[in-house]
Amino acid sequence: MTSGAVNPGARVLVVGGGYSGERFARAAAARGAQVWLTYRRNKPEQPKDPEAAALQWLHFDAEAQAIPPLPEQLSHVLITLPPGATGSDAALEHLLEPLRHQPLRWLGYLSTTGVYGDSQGAWVDEHSPTLATLPRSKARLQCEQRWLSSGLPVQSFRLPAIYGPGRCPFEQLRSGQARLVHKPGQVFCRIHVDDIVGALLHATDQPEGRRPPAINVSDNVPCPSSETLGYAAHLLGCKLPAVQRFEAIAPQMSPMALSFWAENRRVRNHLLCAELGYQLRYPSYREGFAASLAEEQATSAKQP
Fold this sequence. Notes:
CATH superfamily of one domain: NAD(P)-binding Rossmann-like Domain
Helix content: 25-40%
Distance between the termini: 41 Å
Strand order of the largest sheet: 3-2-1-4-5-7-11
Radius of gyration: 20 Å
Shape: globular
CATH class of one domain: Alpha Beta
Number of helices: 11
CATH topology of one domain: Rossmann fold
Order of helices and strands: EHEHEEHEEHEEHEEHEHEHHEHH
Number of strands: 13
């Protein structure tokens, strides 16, 4: 390991202990690091396992003026918070200056591949222009640029749709709420939460000269949502719902749902996998869905 790696001597702060943040925190704790996470509303209930017991929670809610003092001698920080409704970043506004006084070796920022905008299905990489069109993507790009220009050792990780245990379409299929939508030529990119964690840890293991400012973290198989839903149904052994044409159901979709279908791009991961040498645990949704279902079933079996 390099001196920048998350290791037993590391002191790690995760700002935003949600789905991806807590998964990263647990992995850092498993390496022996001392880890703090922030929560906004209610402190999450933690299962009684060694990794969860090692996590320390801090209340951070800018709207409620709950700004915690930072732990001392932080070596690594991960920012997972999305921009707020007005496009502001609570971590930038309230934690940036205190972080300048920490001996940070690495700060990761979770951004979005939405910063590239709509490429009409063409491939994009880290050298592609950032032509964000959706308001939330514009806000994320602005926050990303502010972090990158902060003078701290920042890397931005641009993520597509995140999936994993509890974030696959299995429950929608079981409950009959899944929609099989067909829109010609439309593809989506995705990444398993454990490959986000793996990519982040891999980045901290690199020497400073191998830490590009922005990295796409996406799997190898952009594809239509109908394809992934079909495979999920195959794993469950259940029937698919009837196919619906996008044009026919678009008028009934919410603005948020429509926004996901408004852009079409394929995200290249060559920098992460070929140049930096990260090996995806789940190169496609097939391996990722199967592993996610197995973990969901194992977790369910443990519950009383």
